[in-house]
Amino acid sequence: ADKIIIDTDPGQDDAVAILLALASPELEVLGITAVAGNVPLALTERNARQIVALSGRTEVPVFAGCDAPLSRPLVTAEHVHGKTGLDGIALPAPRLQLQPRHAVDFIVETLRAQPEGTVTLVPIGPLTNIATALQRAPDIAARIRRIVLMGGAYFEVGNITPAAEFNIYVDPEAARIVFASGVPLVVLPLDATHQALTDRAWVEAMRALPGRCGPAVASWTDFFERFDREKYGSLGAPLHDPCAVAWLIRPDLFEGRQINVEIETQGEFTTGMTVADWWRVTDRPANALFIRNLDRDGLFALMHERIARLP
Ligand code: BDR
Ligand code: CA
Description:
Layout: E1 2-8, H1 12-22, E2 27-34, H2 41-55, E3 62-64, H3 78-81, H4 103-113, E4 119-123, H5 128-136, E5 144-150, H6 166-170, H7 172-179, E6 185-188, H8 190-193, H9 200-207, H10 213-232, H11 240-249, E7 254-259, E8 261-263, E9 274-276, E10 288-294, H12 296-307
Parallel strand pairs: 1-2, 1-4, 2-3, 4-5, 5-6, 6-10
Antiparallel strand pairs: 7-10, 8-9
Helix pairs in contact: 1-2, 1-10, 1-11, 4-5, 5-7, 9-10
This protein binds beta-D-ribofuranose (BDR) and calcium ion.
Protein name: Nucleoside hydrolase
Domain Inosine/uridine-preferring nucleoside hydrolase: 4-300
InterPro entries: I/U_nuclsd_hydro_CS (IPR015910), Inosine/uridine_hydrolase_dom (IPR001910), IUNH (IPR023186), Ribo_hydro-like (IPR036452)
């Protein structure tokens, strides 16, 4: 199995991503690291523990990481995810302790302890923890197998500003460090993830699953759908973050190009933009596989099949 660390700011779509990973034998989740993003860290780490407890996989450790971006105040997204970040269903207090170690220490120590090139990082929130690890321990860059992240947008552009996607916008300095790290990157931007819209039949099939995880997914996506319906008039909730996990399991469901992507940190209107050289008009070297399209039905069939395996 592919060893992964999920770095996350749950988030209903983060929650589905985590469940998808925990239900998939192709992946070995070494740990889950929480970061401030959709809501402050105290909530994201608690939400992460609730999700892991829900999955029954309480042996998977959860760590708390950075509580603010590298050099900016935190911007949150309660307008999308609700006050707790995981609104939609009331979950019991998590039966899972937070690990005492800082998430960044866990990331660094795990990468040093595991054989070189065997651990994939899967960031689905702002990149603060990952950038901090790379800054503190530059030796880990060569040890990371690859980074498969949800973030950015190019043709579809922004969901938090006209030019920027939330995860990159919250900590563009961190994103710049990650995109300049030389680690192979796979980027799932809004261009792809806005194709990953739930539909009624899928949500009702989740709700009808016999365990507790399926109905939780249905309640989360129902809550999450409101924002996109009001904002974009689209039907369905975009399951952004599960795309990153799904790429690891079924890369054949996705298509993109190996291109250069730079992060705007200074723009008057474009801070946090992922400037993607899709048409290769520069000679800047490619640093990312930038995903543009996905097989929507294949993706949802995969998520159904996997979440049905959970308690
Ligand atoms: C990203 O921002 C968050 O609100 C979601 O969880 C996802 O990671 C989408 O822009
Ligand atoms: Ca997220």
